[in-house]
């Protein structure tokens, strides 16, 4: 009893902690609704299994023959079983009921959706039912019938066993003798079981519209003309056989039901298997393309509808491959916004330049966003400076880990299209305290992707703050402390709550520490994805939450999807496979197959107090509408989204990846061509990965102007190449898919063009090289290789950044930043060169502006964002070159820390950089001469001459 009480109290502590957490975050109704639903379903499952099994066994036992003659073996069985009979007759049903209840409560969402189902407004092409029947009703009906079938199957087996044990069923050689009471009970139960099978077979005919086959998902010719009618006939036969069992219960003859059962088995073989095979083999296969055409068309239309690509704008695009002077003049704004900072590569630069202390960290993969700077949209690479308790080393005590180091500090943003003269990012928001162009905002990060498991914050009014706010810098290593004054977690305002959380986190310090007062709050479950998933368990979340400065605070923006795997005729995809690429190798969430997806919810999590806000982004979506009936008042309408928030939400990448995967095949809208697969596409592999890798190239966010758009907009794009392998594989572009990802900046109003998908289809000739071809040409070009060899001096590493594809100049321009990283342990990549390619021509220069001019005959007609290089940190990227310590600035105006230099400053910076390179070239010449390597000596000499010429040009 003591052990049971202890276990029970631990369970209670976890449940009570959940109530406190949900109550604090304002979603306690979600928890209580889920608990009530689970509890009710557990009781239903328990009773629906335990009661019929118990009743069936009791009836079998009480109607047993009193004077049955048993053989010696059954006598021994009874002797063993009789002392345990009462326990077994109650214990077995209870145990089975518990298992059934646990299974039923785990599927609590299904009956709630069925009870609150919302019509879709469109019908399937075969039965004419509303789509909601397949998404909400059919799965529920099949689940109920399956559960009931399992109950009666198990009960029938136990009844047979009980009757056999007590002599109601006797086997004498070939003769089976069944008592009247056993006959009636078994016949009735068998009849009910067969009735349930008849219903199950009847429902199976509707399920053909969501089953996958070798050709499509959904019913094909054989299904529509053989399988579906056959299942209807089999259901009728099963119902008739069930009636025969009921007749047997009355007249006492088993011949008719046994003959009926045999007929059912034979019919299932003939009607269910043989007849469809004959139709497929002798009718469909000889004329498959013609007969399957209408069903393929159903699949094309339904798949495009289910994945939100039905309104795709397909634009024929005859891409130019001639790089003529002035070709980019009409695309000047797009050219100026081409992103050079690769968020997958410059994370180490953020760490070395902006980390400041070992207990801070930045993620390896940064995010992209955009801000209005001086009235223009500026694409940025952003990250928050979060905590890294492992950096404390020996100082990682309980007190430090949970009371002192409680939060990160600041958002760091770098211009996506700019670089300093030495290749560093140009920060538009940086430093501690945070300064830059983003204005004043709350910089503290209490809720982030790498926040500690839990922190205890807050203190009595007037008490000394103990939470480290940020290092103030200076020679005395002064620290600034702060006390959390928000509402971010449950309050520890009594001894009982402290005990609850001491048990939850297995730490007696929470209960004993004198710093844990009645004014303290405990912050936990701090990952933004985790918080949104807990308050909206019905959503599938995008795997890439990103931080933005919105309305004076840092918030995490997360996209939520409503999904289904029961949309008729829609292709099923494994979501985890579809979203995997070089930026998302191992999704944090496990997904099943889906064939319907909508971005129904935009969620935000305040990085300071953890508050979660859900906005209904697609209020008319039927699954979301059903959940709003279940959880009323948990979602806010889109009309309550501020203009500042609207300017930072974007079209989600995971949804786009699903759509591009589907469009690889379903861009073809004519059934005959689809059947022939004469124009199937696929996403190219990431050309920056090893050649043996099968990792796909991710989509990229860029501000650009697609054909069909009047002005550039923030967009997400991906490319397509032919879907072939081996000798037939050709890495040429076949399509270019982009979506307008800009939601506008008006309060509660989505921009008209948001979500518009445009597909540029390229002709057979002239061919446009794909990313793989461009990367191969870049790697093998002699002039480029010579320059790369110079960059690799001193065992430096050359890193290829993301290879971007931009529709400008009437064609497709490739842009790739090239980074150089020295061999030191604390070095980081510096942007040194830019590759550009257009058609079969390429250029490789120090800046994008120079590369474009070189590519387009000396004058591209447009200026890139890096035309004038700001002065940056000099050096090789070591900590010695880090910026000033936090707090060492007297400027509190909030202006950007990177001020564009004067022309003289730019010239001086370029001269310093050229002198450093020239010095290295001299060293290379001397080393090559000593080694007798005259080829390397010539390369170094040529480089030195080039550098001298550039310095003479600068000095006039």
UniProtKB/TrEMBL annotation:
GO terms for cellular component: extracellular region; plasma membrane. It comes from the Bacteria. It is a multi-pass membrane protein. InterPro entries: UPF0182. It is found in: Cell membrane. Keywords: Cell membrane, Membrane, Transmembrane, Transmembrane helix. The chain crosses the membrane at residues 41-61, 87-106, 144-166, 186-203, 232-251, 258-278. Residues 862-906 are annotated as: Disordered. Residues 895-906 have a biased composition (Low complexity). Residues 877-894 have a biased composition (Acidic residues). Belongs to the UPF0182 family. HAMAP family: UPF0182 (MF_01600). PANTHER family: UPF0182 PROTEIN SLL1060. This is UPF0182 protein ESP50_17390. It comes from Agromyces atrinae.
